[in-house]
Design goal:
Rossmann fold; 40% helix; binds pyridoxal-5'-phosphate; binds the ligand N[C@@H](CCOP(=O)(O)O)C(=O)O; transit peptide; EC 4.2.3.1; TrpB-like_PALP_sf; threonine biosynthesis
């Protein structure tokens, strides 16, 4: 019964969610038909589902003039029933005997003991549906415009924020990002045949932060509608979190306040919150200093904290991991490499993979690698110490991977937990290694950010040491769009970086506007290379 109504089929429905073979046969068409046939019936029946291909159904593709996709979802009740799925905050990695928990409608970021929180789903309720059911449900929603499932995040709503009213969701239809087969890079640089880049930066504000921010800002929207005193949302940022927060808040009409380390983020990142109308506060400190200040401010004022200390963010970010499995038709890659800074994302990926395993969509999880810039490598140092000694924050030095210039990551405990539980590895990359890796990847047709360069440099090291094998299926997570970091590319290609050979620089050739001069250059620089 429950399985049917997730797709909004009306009763009577006698199908068992675990064995509903006929229902599961073709979820794509079922879902499509429910939407396109819905104007004639608020609760479409199995009969209406099976009549999807009829001409009657095909002719009803216009929605009423006064209706938008939110209204349509409401009218057809597509998203109303959450089947008793629920989620709450619990202390992160708590003792099983702990009874401490909080509603997601509470404004709370830390447990009683001061530790991190985690969003815990009612796994027993989710387990009432088998892995095949979830795969079919998620697959049925890809590429649609149905509110809110057109988003890669909200297509997994039951696993993200099951109880939120779809009407409160603030979404830019984020997610569903390209999983790019890095054919030439893999073959020519690494001798690999199954190398992929998950382009999370090809997104609304140009980074993976959109995945988490749609969840956080949607929940804030809900809290404000419930009358909770939230006057705005604030974050500290190395550029990408602030861009995402500002855009989603602007879309919802919610004030955003962003704390940025002065002169430490790219111009393209800085202009994003300015353009989106956020209150931009530029502080004479580094990211860790900004983070400390925003924590103090949000403890005093009714400003909601949007950094990944807030575990809601990770619920959205984990969907990128689920998406990778989905894009491989639910086959598990061998390796996933993630650049790490504040360290929320590495845990989010772990959580996404782990949920898919626990709910029977896959039978194992990949090994993960967290890649750090050597100039901001506290996790790497902790890993190298065998995880044994107490974690020691560092003062992060300047790095071209400026968005991960973080010395005191808030999610250190989450990252260690994730890496220990997936037999993970931490690698580091020097400035030259990360810039060379980025530039070499660009020369094969990508246009990646320096943080993705860190991840690729880690991959090169692990390939060279034989840890990653030539035919291991490997995914490098690209976290931001290269267009946000053009200055670093300009510096590299101008060969202006002190102590860096810039081996793959490709500076423009200045030539007199004269036929002979142009021909000489072409003979020397193009034809000679061809022969
Ligand atoms: C582009 C980019 N890559 C990687 C990261 C690292 O993510 P996390 O802080 O979750 O470790 C960040 C932010 O920190 C980022 O903005
Ligand atoms: N790279 C981040 C740093 C803050 O990370 P968060 O995930 O805790 O918000 C940024 O872009 O600000």
């Amino acid at each position: 019964m429950a399985a049917c109504s997730l797709f909004q089929a009306s009763s009577p429905c006698t199908l068992n969610p675990r064995t509903s073979k006929s229902f599961l046969r073709n979820p794509r068409t079922q879902s499509l038909s429910i939407r396109s046939c819905s104007s004639s019936s608020a609760t479409p029946s199995i009969t209406s589902i099976s009549s999807e291909s009829s001409s009657n159904c095909h002719s009803k593709h216009r929605r009423p003039a006064d209706e938008n996709i939110r209204d349509e979802a409401k009218r057809t009740h597509i998203t109303d029933n959450n089947h008793g799925f629920s989620a709450k905050y619990v202390p992160f990695n708590a003792d099983p005997s702990s009874t401490e928990s909080y509603s997601l409608d509470e404004i709370i970021y830390r447990s009683k003991s001061g530790g991190l929180l985690d969003v815990q789903h009612d796994m027993e309720a989710l387990k009432k549906f088998d892995g095949k059911y979830w795969k079919n449900l998620f697959d049925s929603r890809i590429g649609k415009t149905t509110w809110p499932y057109g988003s890669g995040v909200w297509s997994k709503k039951e696993w993200v924020l099951p109880e939120i009213d779809s009407d409160h969701i603030v979404s830019a239809f984020e997610g569903n990002s390209n999983l790019f087969w890095a054919e030439r890079y893999g073959k020519t640089i690494l001798g690999m045949n199954d190398l992929w880049v998950k382009h999370c930066g090809i997104s609304h504000t140009g980074s993976f932060k959109d995945l988490g921010m749609t969840v956080l800002v949607s929940q804030v929207n809900r809290l404000r509608k419930l009358g909770k005193p939230v006057v705005g949302v604030g974050c500290a940022s190395t550029g990408d979190t602030s861009a995402a927060l500002s855009a989603y808040c602007a879309a919802a009409g919610i004030p955003a306040i962003v704390f940025l380390p002065a002169n430490k983020i790219s111009m393209a990142q800085l202009v994003q919150p300015i353009a989106n109308g956020a209150k931009v506060i530029s502080l004479d400190t580094d990211f860790d200093g900004c983070m400390q200040l925003i924590r103090e401010v949000t403890a005093e004022l009714p400003i909601y904290l949007a950094n990944s200390l807030n575990s809601l963010r990770l619920e959205g970010q984990k969907t990128a991991a689920i998406e990778i499995l989905q894009q491989f038709d639910w086959e598990v890659p061998d390796w996933v490499i993630v650049p790490g800074g504040n360290l929320g994302n590495i845990y989010a990926f772990y959580k996404g993979f782990q949920m898919c395993k626990e709910l029977g969509l896959v039978d194992r999880i990949p090994r993960m690698v967290c890649a750090q810039a050597a100039n901001a490598n506290p996790l790497y140092l902790h890993y190298k110490s065998g995880w044994d000694s107490e974690f020691k924050p560092v003062t992060a030095a300047t790095t071209f991977a400026s968005a991960i210039q973080i010395g005191d990551p808030v999610s250190i405990d989450r990252a260690v937990f994730a890496l220990k539980n997936c037999d993970g590895i931490v690698e580091e990359a020097s400035e030259e290694e990360l810039m060379d890796a980025m530039s070499q990847a660009d020369l094969t047709g990508m246009f990646i950010c320096p943080h993705t360069g860190v991840a690729l440099a880690a991959l090169i090291k692990l390939r060279n040491s034989g840890v990653i094998q030539p035919n291991d299926r490997t995914v490098v997570v690209s976290t931001a769009h290269g267009l946000k970091f053009t200055q670093s590319k300009i510096d590299y290609h101008s060969k202006e970086i002190p102590d860096m050979a810039s081996r793959f620089a490709n500076p423009p050739i200045e030539v007199k506007a004269d036929f002979g001069a142009v021909m000489d250059v072409l003979k020397k620089r193009v034809l000679s290379e061809y022969q």
